[in-house]
Amino acid sequence: MEKVLTIAGSDCSGGAGIQADIKTITVHKLYAMSVITALTAQNTTGVYGVQDVTPDFVAQQLDCIFRDIKPNAIKIGMVSNPDIIAVISEKLQEYQGVNIVLDPVMVATSGGKLLKDHAVEVLAEKLIPLAEVITPNIPEAEALCGFQIDSLDDMRKAAEKLSSIAGKGILIKGGHLFSSADDLLLYESKEYWFREEKINNPNTHGTGCTLSSAIACNLAKGHSVPDSVLLAKKYITGALRDHFDVGKGRGPLNHCYAIR
Ligand SMILES: Nc1ncnc2c1ncn2[C@@H]1O[C@H](COP(=O)(O)OP(=O)(O)OP(=O)(O)O)[C@@H](O)[C@H]1O
Ligand SMILES: Cc1ncc(COP(=O)(O)O)c(N)n1
After folding, report:
1. Which pLDDT belongs to residue 178?
2. Are 180 and 198 in contact (CB under 8 A)?
3. Residue nearest to atom 4 of ligand 2 (CA)
4. For residue 182, which atom of ligand 1 is closest to its CA?
5. How far is the CA of 144 from the centre of ligand 2 (A)?
6. Alpha carbon of 216 to ligand 1 centroid (Å)
7. Of the candidates 49, 30, 162, which has an alpha carbon nearest to the alpha carbon of residue 104?
8. In this model, does residue 260 exceed pLDDT 90?
9. CA–CA–CA angle 43, 49, 55 (5° rounding)
């Protein structure tokens, strides 16, 4: 069985972060491992507290995993601060991590900050170049590119700009901006559009985490990058169509839809 590692923050309410990733990996029938970068106290209504793990302890978790069980793919989510980013970058290079999918998580759906402002540059310098695919949403792509994205053409320009710092693939997710939910992958200088109609569902907590970990699962199974994104897009669209409704705010996805 292929093994997938998620390096991310914990969401105690189970909708995003490590918990969403482990659910996704398990539903893909793969073996899930986790390195926790931060504990968050959050639910569907907001993020009420963040407790970062020390960089040394992040390093210790990575050492334990790589010295024992080598992951076939790695998903990176919330990394919180520059020191944590630096240690993840060092360890992934030391252990030659493969099939890295980086979701540059900055702000939660509910509005809470999950990455320190001054950490964006460090993320761009130390982690983005290591990734097989990065998966920014529109606001994250804007923060990384330094210009506003209002159209499909702007998404294209952003992907091209990011290709100068990214290792390989750039997937810009259109979920935040348009009446449609079109995502653009730029991979090996080729454009791939993944088009879906926007589902009328306010419960999108954890969609980014789920999409990126599903991509990592598909890479671990040996699919190409474009095929991995296509399959992950189908998974997220199915989960959104299920219209699961849990909690008082922006609710999470129902991963069990895929195993009914
Ligand atoms: N209402 C929707 N209908 C269909 N697909 C959607 C909808 N909202 C988001 N998506 C899709 O879900 C995936 C995640 O996109 P989104 O832009 O929401 O990322 P994100 O902001 O990182 O997610 P999160 O809400 O976890 O922060 C993308 O494939 C996007 O197109
Ligand atoms: C620990 C953690 N990681 C990531 C997210 C982003 O997910 P969302 O934007 O759907 O809230 C989150 N809320 N919490």
Report:
1. 65
2. yes
3. 17
4. 31
5. 18
6. 17
7. 162
8. no
9. 120
**Average pLDDT estimate for 191-213:** 94
Contact predicate 6/35, CB 8 Å: yes
Calculate mean pLDDT across residues 157-166.
93
CATH of domain 3-259: 3.40.1190.20
**pLDDT tens for residues 105-157?**
998 877 888 999 889 999 999 999 999 999 999 999 999 999 999 889 999 99
Output 177 or 25, whichever has higher pLDDT: 25
Probe residue for ligand 1, chosen from 42, 110, 137, 194 as the CB with the greatest number of ligand atoms within 8 Å: 137
Percent of the chain clearing pLDDT 90 (strictly above): 85
Q: Which residues line ligand 2 (CB under 6 A)?
A: 8-11, 16-17, 40, 42, 77-78, 105, 108-110, 114, 205-209
Cα 236 to middle of ligand 2, angstroms: 15
Quick one: average pLDDT of 12-27?
A: 97
Domains of the chain: which residue ranges? 3-259
Sheet with 169-172: strands ordered across: 46-52, 31-43, 3-11, 73-76, 100-102, 133-134, 169-172, 183-187, 190-194
Percent residues over pLDDT 70 in the chain:
100
Q: How far is the CA of 202 from the centre of ligand 1 (A)?
A: 10
Q: Pocket of ligand 1, candidates 142, 171, 173, 200: which has the most ligand atoms within 8 Å of its Cβ, to mutate?
A: 173
Burial grade of 56 (CB within 10 A; 0-12, 13-18, 19 or more): exposed
